[in-house]
Specification:
This protein is of the alpha/beta class and 285 residues long. The protein contains 12 helices and 11 strands. Helix 7 runs parallel beside helix 11.
Length: 285
């Protein structure tokens, strides 16, 4: 071995490549990826316009329990669709504007927090339990921790809904939902909303819900937060006409995990002492 080779320093192992930095998606990104907002796969322009025409002509299911709006026009509904959901028929694809979803959520959690700050009463109900029960249940728990009284009941008497006997409304984790005793059921029956209000232990200062339950609250003069997809455009019309409703525009048919970013935003907004409601003046996420 030569002297030069003996003096050569040992070869160091090759440096490992740097580990890619993993960043959590923003609320906006998470909601869009889960299709809770943004592009609406499987929805067509003609479907949305069909909902619009049925609402204008007074279709019962499109009204979700509201009486027919006097003087309603196609132009009025189109205005509500663009203002609340950010969609217009000229758009190539059916979509909900994520910024409007986040702005609606911000306004909703601020409103819920304001009631909680005064120890007010809030009720929760969902007509789409497969999608929304977990989201409502999480918000109900956070609302109680923030100081609100979550008003509930145990169950309603047996109901006959759309010709089906043996239905009841149960309260699960503070949230009302329709059941046949073995499964939770979606409903568009306006009488379900009326039954919930009748059975509640006290009249709420605010109802957080969707579909017929949010509509029943507004009919009874109770302010509401309404989670609403494009098929529930009636809430946009009601809001534009001055009804005390805060609309959170988002798809009503996604798996519960698609809405988890809203659970995180609710936790940030309603956690005692967070200061979120006073410090957030812009759209979150």
């Amino acid at each position: 071995m030569s002297g030069r080779a003996a003096r050569r320093p040992p070869r160091l192992p090759a440096a490992a490549p740097p580990t890619p930095r993993v960043t959590e998606p923003t609320p906006r990104q998470a909601l869009v990826r889960g299709h809770a907002t943004g592009g609406q796969p499987g929805r067509r322009r003609d479907q949305v316009l069909g909902h619009l025409r049925r609402l204008v002509t007074g279709d019962r299911r499109s009204l979700v329990g509201f009486p027919r709006f006097a003087g309603i026009t196609v132009e009025e509904v189109l205005d509500a669709l663009e203002a609340v959901w950010g969609w217009a028929p000229a758009d190539e694809h059916v979509a909900i504007d994520p910024n409007r979803t986040l702005a609606g959520a911000h306004a909703a959690f601020t409103r819920i927090g304001a009631v909680a700050d005064t120890g007010g009463r809030i009720a929760f109900a969902t007509a789409s339990p497969a999608s929304f029960l977990e989201l409502h249940r999480v918000i109900a728990g956070l609302t109680a921790q923030a100081g609100a009284a979550v008003v509930t009941a145990e169950e309603t008497p047996v109901l006959r809904i759309d010709g089906h006997p043996g239905r009841r409304i149960w309260w699960i984790g503070g949230v009302a939902a329709l059941t046949d005793g073995s499964s939770l059921l979606a409903t568009a029956a306006a009488e379900c909303g009326d039954e919930v209000l009748f059975e509640l232990s006290a009249r709420p200062d605010l109802l957080v819900g969707d579909g017929v339950f949010a509509a029943a609250a507004l009919r009874a003069g109770i302010p509401a937060v309404a989670l609403a997809g494009l098929e529930s455009m009636v809430f946009g019309v009601a809001a534009r006409r001055g009804a005390p409703v805060t609309v959170v525009p988002l798809d009503e048919t996604r798996p519960p995990a698609a809405y988890s970013a809203l659970e995180d935003l609710a936790a940030a907004a309603l956690r005692p002492g967070s200061g979120w409601r006073t410090n957030h003046t812009d759209v979150p996420g």
